[in-house]
What does this fold into?
Amino acid sequence: MYEQGVIRPPSEASSLLVRVTRNCPWNQCIFCPAYKGTTFSRRTVEEVKKDIDSMAVEYSGYANMIKSAFLQDADSLVLKTADLLEILTYLRERFPALDRITSYARSTTLKRKSVEDLKQLKDAGLTRIHVGMESGSEKVLKMIKKGITPEDIIAGGRNVVSAGISLSEYIMPGVGGKAFSEEHAKETARLLNVIEPDFIRVRTFAMHPQSPMQALVKDGTFVPMTDEEIVAEIRLLVSSLNEMRSYFSCADFSLNLLMHVDGRLDEKKGYMLEELDKFLSLTKEQKQAYSLLRRSSYMQYPIDVVYNDELMKQILPEIERLEKKDEDGFNKYIKTLMSYQLPQPQTDEWK
Ligand code: SF4
It folds into this structure.
């Protein structure tokens, strides 16, 4: 038997999951249900080694086919460097075919680690770190209680890049709401241009029904954005990013409306802007039809699907029905569909 945490990045779907800490040491972000209702704890090196042994037995028939591992949960780098080195070394001994080991980490934790420590971790096999920066705007970071500053994000990110470890920064269009949308896009781009991460992974914001952000909606502090407004925000973000070698990725997360806006900025920035503009130039009804199609399933569609008359004949009455049902009924329905894709908190008390 061995422990496993509740989440991992989509890009780690086929990775061995090795739990080195439990849950999130911060756990206060008001948009994030993943670890609510849980308590953070560090696992001992001995506990983790026992888990690795159990996995090695379970996968003994095909251990040589396991090429990647992910260290759980939300911030594995909080462990002492010496402990992580021991875990990484042991993991590679028991699974010698591993050529990729990755982890989540918080910017504040990465800022505290020296480049020298990170280089040692890289030499022991840590190949990629995933960081949820969400926004480069100080105001947005404060509003969502992220517990990090733009300076933390830059310092932590630059430490990882300087150590030669691959870096994925996760950003969250829409999380600033209408009031901060422009600042959110511009400041996020400003930080990413300084950090130059290997991957910029887009995670379009969706609100969980239990999220404390619902209270901000009620008091008017947070005004949720429509799909169209979020696409416009992403357009501003992409146009503000340098043509650097970072890979801008919408493809690995189904809450991103335009999943095909995806590619290296030094090769495909022009193409991505064209696709975003193509969507923004549609009529209101065409945009709504596209949103409804995408949000009703996990299927991806080219934007041109809205020129299919037969399909539009089926969709438009449904849009009309939703619009009549309630004030802002269409957008409310889209938001409900989006919220179904979020992880569930492990408590009913999260508010
Ligand atoms: S977003 Fe990350 S840091 Fe914030 S509570 Fe969730 S897991 Fe923890």
User: Anything to note?
Assistant: Residues 177-195 form the longest helix (19 residues). The chain has one domain: 10-339. The mean pLDDT is 96. The domain at 10-339 is CATH 3.80.30.20 (pyruvate-formate lyase- activating enzyme).
